[in-house]
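Quick one - inputs below.
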Amino acid sequence: MSKPDILQVGPYPEWDQIPLQESFHMHKLFEASDAAAFLSSVGESIRGIATRGELGADRAMIEACPNLEVISVYGVGFDAVDLQACRERNIRVTNTPDVLTNDVADLGVAMMLAQSRGIVGAETWVKDGSWAAKGLYPLKSRVWGKKAGILGLGRIGYEVGKRLAGFDLDIAYSDIGPKDYAADWTFVPDAVELARHSDFLFVTLAASAETRHIVNSQVIEAVGPQGMVINISRASNIDEDALLDALENGRLGAAALDVFEGEPALNPRFLELNNVLLQPHHASGTVETRKAMGKLVRDNLKAHFDGRDLLTPVL
Ligand code: 8YV
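Output:
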């Protein structure tokens, strides 16, 4: 039997690429010099798309593949996939939830600690001789005992909360309703109220058209000059211009961010700030998790083409 033709939107590590190629005929869009020409030459043959969370599959890509049956996303976030275009043609969509939850939560908490305690600047202080030349590193504000707000208490938000409880933080959260598995934490329905409560506001919402800029200037200013916003979800959940304005003029104390509008080409205003910790969208970036994500991408594709149920369906 011939291998199903799959459009591959972005690169994968060799440990995924080799087994993908064993089971499927992979067409690497990201290596094409002219993406539109490539799509129109292979589109007819394509039965599946393998993509990455941040790259997704837009309507033009989906429409270029008239025989498309399934899209497998390497990532939990499927906001970059045009679900409406998929629904119209009964195209299945899968993602990689659960396997990355703990790593994403770990990075969020690590960013909070690193930014609060000035770990990056402190290392520079040692390495550039400032310790010897100028003396002690400037004092920082403590973490334990402070108040944390978690905006979006899904799988990742919940794991963030569990970790924060270990740092004796007072935890509140917002979601569409209170969660029975978070009985020890305070439910605050309104995002501005939550922000007012928070020294650290964690943004852990699944992104959608409804959550776009949910962290607006009001929310940002409610976190305030002593507070910090930590984003391990999607850039679109925050009004980035409002965030930059507030960071520049001190209406927000600090931010720790793993995601950016237009990444990897982020707004140069970020590079001028000394109250931010900037990370290259790598919250799920451990070897173990990426191997599990890659396996789930393949297993979902195989399940579809074998006529079995999808392991982690979105649609
Ligand atoms: C990326 C992510 O998909 O899970 C998500 O939604 O954003 C990440 O895990 C990852 O960078 C792979 O592209």
